[in-house]
Amino acid sequence: MEIVMLNLSTTVSTSATLTGYIQTPSKEMPGKTQRPAILIAPGGGYTMVSDREAEPVALAYASRGFQTFVLRYSVLPAMWPAPLLEAAEAVHQIRAHAADWYLAPDQVAMLGFSAGGHLAAALSTLAAAPFLADQGYQAADIRPNALLLGYAVVSLKATVTSKSRSAGRLAAGLQNPEMAQLPLLKEAAELPQQVTAATPPTFLWATATDETVPVKNSLVFAEALAAVHVPFALHVFPQGEHGLSLANNLTEGQQGHTVEPTVTPWLGLSAQWLQLTFPSAGIVV
Q: What's the mean pLDDT when you consider all of the chain?
């Protein structure tokens, strides 16, 4: 395995990084010269980027046959749309290096947790926005081929009464007349309303007892997908707090509350779904 790191530059930021875990071909394993790829956007309420939702998740997907990438995007005091542009640049770079990194450019998935899920959903639904075109990005180049959302924030209306830091940031921004003029901020506050038939197939998972990002976020996004006939899978687990990541001992948090055995199947379920979405990928399920 080769680990690569790129500094991502956009018109508004230079601090984001893209880390790739690249499995190089071997004569002992023929047919593995072009793997599917997955870009992971960890959560953190747009105030930090969680380590628990970064490398451990990347390595878990690597073991299932993916070339995996972690995006460490800009957080406060950086302002929107810096993270969105960095996500666009990350997908662009992954596809631009498809030959170098032994991946299939038409099998690029993006997985986001919590605020990172908001970012992944924003890129997937807003890829064709004129603002991104003005920045030099074409929708087909930056839109993922599949979207995976773990306890993601997608709707301010569904989240504003909760403990979500990322929803709080969006609400504060929209209430500030100057910030409310930031590109695509209003659209980003209600991503289900931005879903179209061009939105990629989506895998959603959440827990019914999440008090930080209510499960309603996943439900309204799934409803929006269904309305335009975009394929999706939705898994709501009966218990578990916010920020579970892999939900096992590997990603256990400092307080020890982020181990939930009933939720660990989400990873295998997502791999099964990705194999259905990318039938030629040979994903380990």
A: 93
